[in-house]
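Q: Could you fold this chain for me?
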Amino acid sequence: REIHKHLSTHTKLAIMATAILVLLGTAVFLVSEKWDQSFSSFDKVMVSLFQAVSAQTTDGFNSVDIGKVSFCGLFMLMILMFIGASPGSTGGGIKTTTAGVLYLSSKTYLLGRPDINFQYRKISEEAVKKAVTILVVFLGVCAFDMIVMSLVEKFSFERILFEIISALGNVGLSTGITSGLSGLSKILLIITMFIGRVG
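A: Sure. Below is the predicted structure, expressed as structure tokens.
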């Protein structure tokens, strides 16, 4: 309780957002995949947990073959990669606090409340504007890459999008199509990784 009192609002938001994303990612991955009979229930949970955490970081590790993951599982991993880790870490993405601010601002708007609050603290309009700007920039980069790569590549929509978001979040995960991409797409992904790293 004493530690909780000394945590900043920023830290509390980062911890809460991370916990929710990890639990949600683990649950979705767990129920969406077709598991081999050799996996025990404990193994399934641990593999799902590892993959959910890995998708939010820049380690590039995978406990399953990403190329064989279901569409639902891929989509969940894409969401986790897009949001990424918390500020101050080496992880990419828009950051957990940005996602948290976007959620809180949307909730406040829908409820018709005047101020955006978290843990009895008001979130400034500047913080909301920064969060929206980051989201728009990241979505813009994804959209541009998707249009270009869809024109020059033969791979499915979800596999191309997975590569783009993985590059933007500097995650390092792949469905296995990277080596088969054209030179133009590889250059585009390199630039995307740089944009994601600079933030």
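A (continued): The mean pLDDT is 90.
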